[in-house]
Design brief:
This protein has a single domain (about 50-265, about 290-300), classed as ABC transporter involved in vitamin B12 uptake, BtuC (Orthogonal Bundle), CATH 1.10.3470.10. The protein contains eleven helices and no strands. It has helices spanning about 1-25, 35-70, 85-100, 105-125, 130-150, 165-195, 200-205, 210-230, 235-250, 250-275, 285-300. The longest helix has about 35 residues, at about 35-70. The two termini are about 20 Å apart.
């Protein structure tokens, strides 16, 4: 219990320090106690929505990854690797092309794209072991990523990222993301149920198929909402739950709160670093995540299989 308390205390300190750094530093630097009109505009219309979006997106994608791992019984399952995020990204770009100017339209299309990728995975799941299913997900991801690469040449499309976030996209992510996170907390015990075999679950009166479907649908909703608002985020859905299991254990009632906070902090940290190291330009947080996440995934795999 002491270890868990210290973990949350350290995480809270990191969150406060990173939020303070992100608010006051960037292309311009200022103190919160001496704000000019320009500083106030920068703070409330640019940095604040971006910080909130990073915290929410990091939390939603990390929880989505934890649920994918629980449902598929695979510690490296993730909406980015499994093609769900790429499917959502492709469909939301198509939605923006067909009906531009309506942001919720893009969110709905993103969810549809995530469901398409999800349904493909579900079709293959009974026929394959978890690690072969990952390869199917990688293939789905490559297919949708290739399709996305064809779209920027078309008029009326625009990519989404933390650099382009607005209050509209942040508030959309806030209310949809919070709905998804509340559902995730309610369904957290299902992640614990799926640690036992299917036959045991049936003997206890539980339906393994219903439990998996429920967790995966919430995971898809969380991942596609984040993708529609700020784009695809790689590896965060693997790294954060993996670290969480080492620090607070495998109980999903304890794991999910940690994953929400740590995922939000990690994305905000990389976004802040990306804004500061090449001023006045910036490096995308998604790119930094991929650079960090690749070696981290290799380290996870080197450590051998770990129960989700």
């Amino acid at each position: 219990m002491k270890k868990i308390t210290l973990t949350y205390l350290g995480l809270a300190i990191l969150l406060v320090l990173t939020i303070g750094l992100a608010l006051t530093n960037g292309a311009s630097h200022f103190s919160l106690t001496h704000l000019t009109t320009t500083n106030q505009n920068t703070l409330f219309n640019i940095r604040l929505p971006r910080i909130l979006a990073a915290l929410l997106a990091g939390a939603t994608v990390s929880v989505s990854g934890a649920f994918f791992q629980a449902a598929l019984r695979n510690p490296i399952a993730d909406p980015g690797i499994m093609g769900v995020a790429a499917g959502a990204n492709f469909f939301q770009l198509i939605g923006g092309l067909l009906i531009p100017g309506i942001f919720l339209n893009r969110v709905a299309w993103a969810f549809l794209g995530g469901l398409v990728a999800f349904e493909i995975l579900v079709r293959f799941q009974p026929k394959m072991d978890p690690y072969r299913l990952i390869l199917v997900g990688v293939a789905i991801n490559a297919m949708f990523t290739g399709l996305v690469n064809l779209i920027p040449t078309l008029p009326g499309t625009a990519s989404t990222s933390l650099a382009t976030v607005t209050w509209t996209s942040t508030l959309t992510l806030a209310w949809l993301g919070l709905i998804g996170l509340i559902l995730a907390v309610i369904l957290a015990p299902w992640g614990n149920y799926l640690k036992v075999g299917d036959n045991q679950l049936v003997s206890l009166g539980q339906s393994p198929k219903r439990l998996r479907r429920g967790l995966l649908l919430v995971a898809v909703f969380l991942a596609t909402t984040s993708t529609a608002c700020i784009g695809v985020l790689a590896f965060i859905g693997i790294i954060v739950p993996h670290v969480g299991r080492r620090l607070v254990g495998h109980d999903y009632n304890r794991l999910l709160p940690f994953v929400m906070l740590a995922g939000g902090w990690l994305l905000l940290f990389f976004d802040t670093v990306g804004r500061l190291i090449v001023q006045p330009s910036e490096l995308p947080a998604a790119a930094l995540l991929a650079i960090f996440g690749g070696p981290a995934l290799i380290w996870i795999l080197k450590g051998g299989p770990q129960n989700a």
